[in-house]
Amino acid sequence: MALTQIFKTDSKRILSDSFMVFMYIAPWATAVITKAGWVYLGMHYPDVSLDPVITTLAVALLTPLNMGIVLGFQLLEEKEQGVFRAIAVTPLNNDLYLLYRFAITAVVATVMTIFVHELLGLVDINLWYLVLIVVVAACQIPLQALTIAGFAKNTLEGFAVMKGTGFLLLVPLLVAHFFAGESLSWLAGIFPFFWLIRAYQFAVENQLTQFIICIGVGITYTMMICGLLMKYYRISALK
């Protein structure tokens, strides 16, 4: 019953908040605009060369991060209201509560990401490769959410943290685009999103061994960081 009530409350909160509604609509709108722009450039400016892999990564596979931002602001609002402290004394403990929030958001983001990827339609990739990649992308949800909710004290600071973490995505994308063939590019592996990018590139090239390694490292590394962020969030939310 408690989880059902949380789901209903979250749904009402998202539908009543224009920013959160926008974050859910943005991936679809961006995919449609990008696809239309791609077709237009192909018809009128055939000499313009764009990278379909990087474009897809920048549009479709950022969808889970959008969902993580929405969840991060939800957790931040609940931290301000003392909801996390209240849950600590109920049968629904904090860890189960957070796991539920992450799981629901991950399921929604996974479905959305696959549909947005296919709507964009710039890269032809094996479905099973795509599903595994989206699993790694879904791991970014708690990372993004806990970064915002853990380090920000209010909504204003939340927006600042959200903007400040943009380089965590931008740097791996730039490295993958301009320095993909260089061994030093692997130094960008300190950024969790880098492993998602590399896994996608290897999937497109059908390099199974490298793909599996990047998937494994991506999930393990991201979950380790999420574990540390969860501990920090518990401390800040229970103050």
UniProtKB/TrEMBL annotation:
Keywords: Membrane, Transmembrane, Transmembrane helix. Coiled coil: none annotated. The chain crosses the membrane at residues 21-41, 53-76, 97-116, 128-152, 164-197, 209-230. The keyword Membrane applies. The keyword Amino-acid biosynthesis does not apply. This is ABC-2 type transporter domain-containing protein. It comes from Veronia nyctiphanis.
